[in-house]
Design goal:
The protein has 13 helices and 14 strands. It is α/β, with parallel strands linked by helices. The structure holds ligand FO1. Ligand FO1 binds next to helix 2 and helix 6.
Length: about 350
């Protein structure tokens, strides 16, 4: 069984841990692992150069979480972290005072930056980083091109004539960590997108999959950024595997993160049904063969089903590993249903 998952960071990490666990239960290899193969195509739009090092927040969230060394409270960074170097950087006025680079985390950024300076591609660097821990899944960055997401916001000072109708752009990480996504986003843009291509292994992982899952990650800046890489949508349209998406919205609320601050910028209502329609169904040229929503949104599943679109409801809250595995199982089962639909 070959499963390929499109995922961002925090929501993606929980979901992917659930997929790994459910695969070990359904297709055990006798040593606690699985005979299934799981490949995760990871969003790289959150990535940023800061204090001279390259950060890949969504990749690192998945890496640390799957390795079991992640800070579960914050949802990012390493467990047992210290911040001595970060305090020094603040004293030097280097980097962003509102953005913390933990000492252990800096080890990852320095290793990554060192390999990049040696001339390795991002995907080779990611392959080296995940050798350190037996993750049980393969992580591949969506692209080797730096496609950092930038956010266009309304900015009263930017107009110059005091009319307050100005706009300005900032890196996604500033919008999210400095302003907590409180500045209304007028639009999102990835840099260098025209030059980007799926990273080595991504198209094959989609083409050769028995099932493609779209994790309950941010539909705009995580899944949206993956889909924006030229060639990605074509690969997803061409794969014989069913494509099953999991809603990141439950009962009109985001599960975690700031999807509700992003969706208005692209004119999509914050609801399970609206996001499903935004992704679109494959028969209409969209992404999905099936859409999985929470039980509180069962009416959304019914509404979509009346239009002949495959939709189902299941508990989407991933409170613990068992719940994450159960959610993964529901998505795998929906994929089986989609295959025979
Ligand atoms: N998020 C914050 O809210 N504050 C931080 O200081 C911060 C530091 C940080 C360092 C490394 C890293 O990989 C992630 C970090 N994040 C921080 C989280 C990051 O903004 C998010 O993981 C995603 O990019 C948004 O989902």
């Amino acid at each position: 069984m070959r499963i390929t998952v499109l995922a961002g960071g925090v929501g993606g990490s929980r979901f992917v841990r659930g997929v790994r666990e459910e695969c070990a239960r359904r297709w055990p290899d006798g040593e606690g692992g699985t005979t299934a193969s799981v490949t995760v195509v990871v969003n790289t739009g959150d990535d940023i150069w800061l204090s001279g090092v390259r950060l890949m927040p969504d990749f690192d969230s998945l890496l640390y979480s799957l390795a079991g060394v992640n800070d579960t409270e914050r949802g990012w960074g390493r467990a047992g972290e210290t911040e001595r170097v970060s305090a020094e950087l603040r004293e030097w006025g280097v980097g962003w005072p509102w953005f913390t680079l933990g000492d252990l985390d800096l080890g990852t950024h320095l290793a990554r930056t060192s390999w990049l300076r040696d001339g390795l591609e991002v995907s080779d660097v990611c392959e080296r980083l995940q050798r350190r821990w037996p993750l049980g899944v393969r992580l591949i960055p969506a692209t080797d091109t730096e496609v950092d997401t930038h956010v266009r916001v309304a900015d009263p000072e930017a107009s110059g004539d005091g009319s307050g109708s100005g706009e300005r752009e900032m890196h996604f990480q500033e919008w999210w960590t400095r302003y907590r996504a409180t500045l209304p986003a007028l639009g999102f843009r990835q840099q260098n997108l025209a030059d980007a291509r799926p990273a080595p292994g991504v198209v094959e992982a989609i083409a050769d999959a028995d099932l493609v899952l779209v994790a309950p990650s941010n539909p705009v800046v995580s899944i949206g950024t993956i889909l924006a890489v030229p060639g990605m949508r074509e690969a997803l349209a061409a794969t014989p595997a069913p494509v099953v998406g999991v809603s990141p919205i439950i009962g009109g609320k985001v599960v975690r993160g700031m999807a509700d601050a992003c969706l208005p910028a692209i004119g999509v209502e914050t609801s399970a049904e609206a996001v499903g329609r935004h992704y679109g169904f494959r028969r209409d040229g969209g992404l999905l063969d099936a859409w999985l929503v929470d039980e509180t949104d069962a009416t959304a599943a019914t509404a979509l089903s009346t239009e002949g679109l495959l939709a189902a409801s299941a508990p989407l809250w991933m409170h613990d590993l068992d719940r994450s595995a159960a959610l993964a199982g529901a998505a795998i089962d929906l994929g089986t249903a989609a295959r025979s639909a």
